[in-house]
Sequence to fold (156 residues):
Amino acid sequence: MNTRGFTMVELLIVSGIAFSLWGGLALMTTDAGNRVWSRADTQMTTMSSAQIALNRLTEDLRAASLAAPVTCQPGDISFTRSSDAAAMRYQLNAAAGTLTRTEAGTSRVVAGNLSALTFPTCSNGLVQVALTARVAPANRIPATYTLNSSVRIRNP
Fold:
């Protein structure tokens, strides 16, 4: 009887164990990649929405005039657009985390997942805007990101 080498059953058992380990490793790597992608996607979606809202707000502020007062309060800004004299208002609903844009009585939500809208400076024609977005991925600690912009309101 030849006792050198391995039997077919031994080779099958070893290869089954090796493939099971490699499969488990591949599954763990794929799962970790999916979690990272999901977290990054949530963050990018929230930040893109906040950046678009901030751009819209600063664009509307640039169209304002000092002829009408600009009223700034935490979470709320009101002004009149000079091109068509439309009353504009941006208001943060802190409970819902949404920023609402109201133009001539018509309101619509422009961004979500926001936690703060502040105006560090709102005088002498200079308005500084700070918009804070809250990113809360599932089963992770929430993170906040603040976007800033400055706008100089023009004279009429």
The longest helix spans residues 8-62. Strands lie at 71-73, 76-80, 87-93, 98-103, 106-111, 114-118, 122-123, 126-135, 143-152. The first strand starts at residue 71 and ends at 73. Residues 72 and 122 are 6 Å apart (CA to CA).
